[in-house]
Amino acid sequence: MNKATQTTMCASNEPRLKVSYELSNGRTVRLTNTMAVFEDEVTDKYAAVNFQKFVKIMSASDEIDDAVCKIHEFEEVEFKKHVGGNWFVNVGSGVRCVDVRKWFFDERGDLRPGRIGMGLRLSDWQLLKEHYPQMLETRADLAVTVPCFDQVGHKAGKRS
User: Fold this and answer.
1) For residues 140, 146, 152 and 153, what is the CA-based torsion angle, rounded to 10 degrees?
2) CA 153 to CA 88: how far, in whole Å?
3) What is the pTM of this model?
4) Fewer Cβ atoms within 10 Å of its own Cβ: the N or the C terminal residue of the chain?
């Protein structure tokens, strides 16, 4: 089992659980008290999303898998799923990865991919899905996390 657990104490003396799951080639996904952090120790890059966004990504796994399957079959695919805030998960024919990225509006008002994010190799995506049941066991609160836009009273942000 490629899992390492580390517990520390935070300022309020409540245990702060950090659990890491290995993906491939120095890549991990680490769960903190409130975030899922995708890390690449080779490039020293990371992307942190809150649990609401992480659960939304994982709940879209069937749709993401359909897009990945098309990549394996050398079909054209442009899949993009909003997971909250300005965060999207993308799968496209041009790059063989599952891209989790924060997007921004440029000066013309067009939505563009930003620098904050991580492209998961297709093998990393498969490992992440395999680790997810363990994550749910370790962090029971993930199983009951509801994305903010699915909550009663959510007000969609408006761009001016």
Assistant:
1) 120
2) 22
3) 0.80
4) C
Strand partners, 88: 82, 101
| CA nearest neighbour of 69 among 122, 121, 24 | 122
What is the identity of the amino acid at 17? L
Tell me how far apart the alpha carbons of residues 124 and 26 are, in angstroms, rounded to a whole number: 11
pLDDT lower than 70: segments of the chain: 1-17, 145-160
Phi, psi of 108 (to 5 degrees): -90, -5
Torsion of CA 97, 100, 106, 111, to 10 degrees: 80
Instruction: Give tens-digit pLDDT for 122-135.
Output: 999 999 999 999 99
Token code pair at residue 88: 């999207």
Rounded Cα distance between 151 and 136, Å, is: 21
> Residue 100 carries which side chain, given as an amino acid letter?
V
**How far, in Å, are 39, 54, 71, 128, 137 from residue 47 at the CA level?**
7, 11, 24, 15, 23
Q: Which domains does the chain have, with CATH numbers?
A: 3-139 (2.30.31.10)
Within 107-151, strands assigned E span: 111-121
